[in-house]
């Protein structure tokens, strides 16, 4: 695991904002750290980057304890949290030159970074005049300059237009596929990262509600049978009396958790036999966004 935390807990005053968090981020993954605003994502990221002191619990990065190996660990992490730290009066390239000197990395890497984030043409423009998307890409280039193994990005697509979002996404996929990096990316929108994330952790009110691969997340999305019928209250009672668990009964339709196609046929036959009109009966699979909202609203 590139990141492993055990029972990480953090308080602001007496309020716990991160609660017993046990994160597991595999090497080579794009880990989407998801949760609504105020869920505790930035606080967790600041703990991982040693920008906040650990109060309770453990953090291991690259298999080593963070507090005892701070310098060597942090030198292998590139990060972008909140606004990228960019000098507005310097050009994009000068910003990179500045950072390259600081990190003592060869200046030759700068051209590669500019090409990677598609800023070659804008290299000599003042960064203060960049669009938000360009600033974000420059921020990612700065984070990548030291060739880190792990990239930690806090809501990197916040405020970007759809094209900017696509560019950042493509860049991250490329980094993992071609350079074997691990990417830890936070977002409050599942749709923004579901296409690229290999793993997700869903957090709300500081607690982890789900953690696993994207396919594991999809597996817990139980399909539902949607039955459009008449007299739904009676129809719901009829089905319940026969052992089916009706989860919702509205004026025009009922929903029942899907178990098998045979059970779908049995419900259809039962309703017909008892004089109900079945206008439609079909299986619905929740999409991931709906699942994410369900998970975060339950907490
Ligand atoms: N320095 C601080 N002092 C006191 N409370 C704080 C501080 N920083 C954050 N909080 C509170 O901790 C909680 C978690 O905030 P955090 O920024 O970690 O959430 P988040 O998931 O990153 O949300 P967002 O997407 O809005 O940034 C919030 O209730 C926030 O108000």
Automatic annotation (TrEMBL):
Q: Which InterPro entries match?
A: AAA+_ATPase (IPR003593), ABC_transporter-like_ATP-bd (IPR003439), ABC_transporter-like_CS (IPR017871), P-loop_NTPase (IPR027417)
Recorded GO MF terms: ATP binding; ATP hydrolysis activity
Tree of life domain: Bacteria
| Keyword ATP-binding among record annotations | yes
Q: Where is the ABC transporter domain?
A: 3-230
For this UniProt record, give its keywords in alphabetical order, as a comma-separated list.
ATP-binding, Nucleotide-binding, Transport
Keyword Transport in the entry? The reply is yes
Against Gene3D superfamilies, the record matches this protein to:
P-loop containing nucleotide triphosphate hydrolases
Pfam families, sorted: ABC_tran (PF00005)
Q: Which family does it belong to?
A: Belongs to the ABC transporter superfamily.
PANTHER family per record: ABC TRANSPORTER, ATP-BINDING PROTEIN
Write down what this protein is called.
ABC transporter ATP-binding protein
**Species of provenance:** Mucilaginibacter robiniae
- Print the organism lineage: Bacteria, Pseudomonadati, Bacteroidota, Sphingobacteriia, Sphingobacteriales
